[in-house]
Amino acid sequence: MSFRGINTTVIQIRRAVFTEVARMAYANVKGEQANHMMRSIPYKIIPGEEGKLRKDIFLERAIVEERVRLAIGLPTRRMDEHNSVVSGLEDANIADKYYDPPLVNVIKFACNRCPEKMVKVSDLCQGCLAHPCMEVCPKNAIVWESGRSTIDQEKCIKCGRCVDVCPYHAIVKTERPCATACGMGAIHSDALGRAEIDYSKCVSCGQCLVNCPFGAIADKGQIYQLIQSFNRGDRVYALVAPAFVNQFPALNTTQKLRAALAQVGFCETVEVAIGADLCTVDEARDFLKEVPDKLNFMATSCCPAWSMMAKTLFPDMAKNISMTMTPMVFTARMIKAADPEARMCFIGPCAAKKLEASRRHVRSDVDFVLTFEELAGIMEARGVDLSIAPEEEELHYGSAAGRGFAQSGGVAKAVADKIHEWYPDKEVKIASAEGLANCKKMLMMAKAGKYNGYLLEGMGCPGGCIGGAGTIADPVRTAVQLNKYVAAAPFKDPEESAFITNIHLLKDDPDFE
User: Fold this and answer.
1) Per-residue DSSP letters for 190-215?
2) Residue among 436, 415, 141, 192 nearest 313 (CA)
3) How far, rounded to the nearest angstrom, does the alpha carbon of residue 341 sit from its chain's CA centroid?
C-alpha cells in the first residue's frame, strides 16, 4: 500500500523539499547566491543539532541534499567520491531543460536494506501441538526449537504455505515494499543489500517511490525550470488532468483552482479532459478500422507506463497499442497551435508523464510536467491562500466521458460508448486492468487469444490515474469526488466538444509519429 492521504514524516519532508526549491526559484538568484540558498535548504528542513529521524542529523541532511538535487532535475551523487551538493546547478538554472535519465532514482544511503523476501516466525507463536506449519512445509525448513517453530532460511523457498495455515497468524511473509509495488520486477538488491533499479525493466510508474517507508526513492522534477520560465515572462498554460479533484480540498471548484494557478504564475488553465475527448473519438475510429480486420484486439494508449510495459514485455503486440495521441499531447498541441509562443505545463498524478514529455516527438509540445504534490509545494512557496482564492469563471471544456479518464475503466467505457452510439448494434467487448502486474496478466491472456475482438484498457497505477505516484489524497476518497466531477460536466458526449474539429488538424501534423 502507499501512504497517500496519511501525513507521514516522509511526505512532510518531500513536500518541504518541493517548497524550498520553489522558493529558491522564485527568488531568481544566480551564481553564488543560488549556491548559498541551495546549501541552506537541508538546514531549514532539518534544523537543530541532534538527529530525530535516523539518529544522525548529518545523514538526514545528506539525504535531503539528494532530494533537493533530484527536485531540481540534477542527478544523485556517487557515494565513493566527493561532489558538491551544488554541482550542476548552473546548468539546471534555465527554463529550457528536460530530464536526464534516469527519472526514478534510489538514494542509496537512505535505503534501509530491506530483505527482498523473508518468511519468519514472530513472537505470537504459541508452540501449538498441531504445528501445521511444519506439516505443510515442502522443504522441511521448519523445526521445533525451545517450544516454538523456527524457520531455516537456507531451506525456506518463501512459498508462504506456513503463513496460510498458522492458526495464530504468527508467521509473516515480508517483501521489500518498493519491490512489492513494482509490477515490472525491476527492483532487486545491490551487493550491499540496498535497493537497485533495473532500468531495462523500469517504466517510471513511480509506485516504488510512494511505497518506500524510508523515502529512499525519488523522481526528478522541473519545479526549478518552470519557475525560471515564469521569471522571464513566458506565457505558460496549466494543462490540468481531471484527477486533480480531491487533491486540494480548498480548491474544490475549477474556478478556485484556476485562480490559485494564476497566482502561481500560469497565464491560463485548461482541462486535459478536452484532449481526452479527442482521444475518445480517435480511438473509437481506430478500433472500428483495425479490429478485427487488421488486429485481433486493440489496447488504449493513454497511460504511458502501461504502454511502455506492453511494448517492453510483449514487443510482438506493440502494433496492438493504439497510435492515438494521449490526452496530454492532444491538449498541448491544440493550445500551442493557437498560441505558438506559449509554453505548456501538464499538471497531473503521473510520474511516467515526465518520461513521455521528454521523448523527442513530444518535447516540442509539452515543456514541463508537474505532479500534484510538486504543485502543492509551489503553491506553499508562492504563499497562495487557498481559503480565499477568488472565484473565477468555471471551466466547462471537457465532457463527462473525458473527465472519466482519470479512473480505471473510464477510457475503455468512453470509447465503447462512442462506438455504440455510432453503431448501436455493434457489441464492443472490454477488458481492463489496473496496476502493472495485473496489466501483464491481461496481456498474457490476450497473447493466448483470450481477448480476440476486445478493447483492452491498461492503467499502470491501482485505481487508475487517481492512484498515481504524484497524487496527494487517498485514491478511494478521490474516486467518490471524481464521480461528482464527472456528473457535473456540462455535456456528456465527447463529440459535443467545441474543440472536436481540431482533431483532423492535429492528426495531420507532419511531426506526429
Assistant:
1) -TTS-EEE-TTT-----HHHHH-TT-
2) 436
3) 29
- CA distances from residue 242 to 438, 446, 465, 479 in whole angstroms, order as listed: 24, 29, 9, 11
pLDDT in tens, 209-256: 999 999 999 999 999 999 999 999 999 999 999 999 999 988 878 889
Q: Let me know if 88 is exposed, middle or buried by CB neighbors in 10 A (0-12, 13-18, 19+).
A: middle
Residue 457: count of CB within 10 angstroms of its CB: 28
Q: CA 267 to CA 382: how far, in whole Å?
A: 15
Q: Are the beta carbons of 203 and 184 closer than 8 angstroms?
A: yes
Q: Could you read off the pLDDT of 58-82 as tens digits, one per residue?
A: 999 999 999 999 999 999 998 888 8
Please give the C-alpha separations between residue 412 and each of 69, 95, 139, 322, 407, in angstroms, as whole numbers. Answer: 39, 37, 46, 12, 11
Q: Could you tell me whether strands 343-348 and 217-219 are parallel, antiparallel, or unpaired per DSSP bridges? A: unpaired
pTM, two decimals, is: 0.93
Q: Cis link prior to 249 (omega < 30° from 0)?
A: no
**pLDDT exceeds cutoff 80 at 54:** yes
Query: Which of left, alpha, beta for 265 (phi over 0: left; psi -120 to 50: alpha)?
Result: left
Instruction: Please state the rounded mean pLDDT for residues 442-465.
Output: 97
Report the interhelical angle of 372-382 vs 9-27 (nearest 10°). 60
| Residues in contact with 460: Cβ distance below 8 Å, sequence separation at least 6, in sequence order | 183, 203, 205, 207, 303, 304, 305, 306, 309, 352, 435, 436, 439
* Structure-block grid coordinates of residue 398: 471537457
For the chain, how many residues are written? Answer: 513
Which tens digits make up the pLDDT trace of 4-48? 888 899 999 999 999 999 999 999 999 999 999 999 999 999 999
